[in-house]
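Pasting as-is:
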Amino acid sequence: MTIDTRYSNHPDDVKHYTTEQLRQHFLIESIFSIDSISLTHSHSDRIIIGGIMPVNKRLSLNASKEMGVDFFCQRREIGIINIGNKGYITIDNERIALEQYDGFYIARGTKNIHLESESSKKPAKFYLNSAPAHYSYPSIKIQHSKANPLKLGDDNNCNKRTIYQYVHPAICESCQLLMGLTMLEPGNLWNTMPCHTHQRRMEAYFYFAMDSGSQVIHLMGQPQQTRHIMVTNEQAVISPSWSIHSGVGTSNYAFIWGMLGENQAFEDMDTIPTSFLK
């Protein structure tokens, strides 16, 4: 297992970042590696973002020195969504199958977490977000068909999409983590536009299901000091609470969003009129 550490960034400093510095601080370029657990620990609300890709063996999610605990979920909760082929998650000796786009919420206090693929030729890809937790809510499998769908946008604005809420009060209880999957319809390119901020929560975007050669222009920064990061398939962006988070692709795509902070009110956001952006 590898874990990278990212520190918090003041918006006044980010105004002066070069392209290389923006990418160094906010972009996670490699999420999945064969038979590996790749994690990024951000000081922005102490979220852990990462990918687990078991191919030839079962992988165990353990604590690292950076966490300072005996086991990963000793003081944390986890949301997982499988974007690959069929796999299995074993939680304290209970083995559960996860098909593509199925999710799982892992409770604080869970000691043993193992992940594996059904086939080495068609491996699973488990994307995870983890947040500090103060209470143990029940672990639960969240099938894609049982996620809460919200249809937003329209073809005229190139932002027709479905938001599937997984770790959300409408689906399961959690301490502070919110997590879901957004899929854009063919011919639609924009997500979260008009954009917004939510000073009470940070967010992370993981982009995937992109055609070869496609990119997403991820917009970030303060509303009148916008910056952008070019993102390719299966990369993630850390979005501090003061930053907008929106994107437009060269073709349609999907992304997983994860939030943590002061509350779990999905609609608690400060919308920014497009005409206000600079």
